[in-house]
């Protein structure tokens, strides 16, 4: 993408110092935002004849670095813990839920429909249907919008959505040739036939197949793409480390201040009770500068310190029609309003989902960036966040790649991920979306804002954005 951007700059007579120009922008500087649509003047986004869909509650297990306290569990164990935490927090009767939908990415083969297994383990009625969705890092976003769709269609009134990821133990397969021989052996009828097939085994057949860490369509890892994207937008190593340090510092402050109220305590079988995320580790710029590039060596800028880490965790939210929630005596936290999904080139624009999704969802809602009080973006890599910021601040990018007349503008940092983000809190792929939405609801309550915006990128060049409106206090 670096060469593509530079060539386009030359043809459009744009100075090659474009990336450097935006690179000088301080993380703490208020951005002058430009409205692209007519502002709604902070009126409610409720529409006549359209059901109001509300977030009643959201919880999550502590997000832990993979290979730590959760190491001996299975994905449905974490999902069950999140679902039980939601039941305990809300007090909703287990048989009052109409449907359960869960997101996950790396599936455990023994529990392929982890939504169903987690729900049964949590004690939900076996009469409640449950299904699992997978959309990379926005899997639980998809779970929530699937729930919203079912409610809007009149199919359900009360749905539990969520997601889980368990990277401490991932399925590892035999090689394809080994699998073929093993399946054939199962079909043999005589000992001689079995010996003949076993005789075809070669040493190379014993090489295991690990879960893919690269994009299937491009063969490139997401970290590699983040490195190229940072280079294309002129995002320096120092900028990335500064943003990562900000994320960890804000997360530590939020954790110590008790702001992460979606986190539930979880007694791990055979281990201690866990009640805090364990990946929050504020570091100095000097400490971070010592780390070597993780993907493009030796000149890359993406390191372990400015990337999200492999994480185990689960989340769950209770989504209802407003009418049903009030009838059952609940006080909702927020309205789930407009949302969009986007998709781009998975090679050069893999991580630019927020840039493409944000203006679209704002236009659907009739809002501008100035109307948004709370921003929560998924932090896959610090370089990915900063590249999106620069793309959103560029008229040239909007005109050249998005077919727009002008930029949407980048979120002001004083409204952005103020309680930390995926870089510091952790990123269980299938669970992060619910964390983002619940955090927006809690921040709107805490800060007195009305509108929040969630945005996230995902593997495959996909992305999601949602507008959330605070419920009247």
* Biggest sheet features: 10 strands, mixed
Q: What's the β-strand tally?
A: 12
Based on the coordinates given, report the CATH architecture of the largest domain.
Answer: 3-Layer(aba) Sandwich
Q: The CATH topology of the largest domain is what?
A: Peroxisomal Thiolase, Chain A, domain 1
* Structural class by secondary-structure content: alpha+beta
- CATH homologous superfamily grouping of the largest domain: Thiolase/Chalcone synthase
| Radius of gyration based on Cα positions | 23 Å
Could you give the distance between the termini? 47 Å
Classify the helix fraction into a percent range: 25-40%
CATH class of the largest domain: Alpha Beta
Question: Would you give an account of this structure?
Answer:
The strands form 2 sheets. Strands 1, 2, 3, 4, 5, 8, 9, 10, 11 and 12 form a 10-stranded mixed sheet that branches. Strands 6-7 form a two-stranded antiparallel sheet. It folds into 2 domains: 53-167 and 218-470, 3-Layer(aba) Sandwich (Peroxisomal Thiolase, Chain A, domain 1); 180-209, no CATH class. Helix 4 links the parallel strand 3 (99-103) and strand 4. The chain is an alpha+beta fold and 473 residues long. It is 35% helix and 15% strand. The chain has helices at residues 2-11, 18-23, 75-90, 114-121, 139-152, 176-187, 191-198, 222-232, 237-256, 285-289, 322-327, 353-365, 382-392, 395-401, 422-425, 432-447; strands spanning 53-60, 64-65, 99-103, 130-133, 158-165, 266-267, 273-274, 311-321, 334-343, 374-377, 451-458, 462-470.
